Amino acid sequence: MKTKVGLWIDHRKAIIMSVTNQGEEIGLIISKVEKQLRRSGDSPLKGPYEPDQVPAQDSRQKTLTGQLNIYYDAVIACIRDAESILIFGPGEAKGELKKRLERDNLGGRIVAIETVDKMTDRQIAAKVRQHFPA
After folding, report:
1. Total domain count for the chain?
2. Who's near 106: CB < 8 A, 6+ residues apart?
3. Would you state the pLDDT for residue 119?
4. What is the C-alpha to C-alpha distance for residues 80 and 5, in angstroms, rounded to an integer?
5. CB of 20 closer than 8 Å to CB of 1
6. What secondary structure letter does DSSP report for 39?
7. How high is the pLDDT of residue 123?
8. Is residue 41 part of a domain?
9. What is the C-alpha to C-alpha distance for residues 49 and 36, in angstroms, rounded to an integer?
10. What are the distances in angstroms from CA 85 to CA 50, 75, 89?
11. H helix or E strand, kind and range, residue 96
């Protein structure tokens, strides 16, 4: 059974459309990534932040990287068995995922990477059907 996957991805969610001989299936993975980590403490309107209330830049980056790794691992687990993978989306996530797939020796299955804007589920399904005609 040959599985072809179209994947729309950004840092907030991934929409995965699998096309097989039996039909199509759409899945959704929501990330827990928080781009702007919140400061602890009160409102800035009540006065300036103390240095100990603002997380250090490197610790915020480590948290973000850890959250992204968990997210990308979940996406890769869903598309690991695909024969052909089309990756598209608006931001940097598609390139980051490509590097992860290449590191896991799955980079050869990527047939294309495209930059597109936000899309509805129907637009994503139409794009995948157009790329992988029956």
Report:
1. 1
2. 76, 80, 85
3. 92
4. 10
5. yes
6. P
7. 94
8. no
9. 16
10. 48, 12, 13
11. helix 93-103
Would you say residue 125 lies in a domain? yes
Residue 85: inside a domain, yes or no? yes
Residue numbers of the domain that contains 104:
4-34+54-131
Strand partners, 5: 18, 85
CA angle 98, 89, 93 (to 5 degrees): 45
Query: Position of tokens 């990308």?
Result: 72
Spatial distance between the Cα atoms of 26 and 16, rounded to a whole number of angstroms: 6
Q: How far apart are CA 87 and CA 109, in angstroms?
A: 11
The reported pLDDT for the residue numbered 66 is 86
Residue 72 lies in a domain: yes
The rounded average pLDDT for each run of 10 residues, N- to C-terminus, in the chain (134 residues) is 90 93 91 67 56 63 87 95 95 94 94 94 93 84
The pLDDT of residue 80: 93
DSSP 81: T
Specify the CATH number for the domain of residue 122.
Answer: 3.30.420.60
Is 21:41 a contact under the CB 8 Å cutoff?
Answer: no
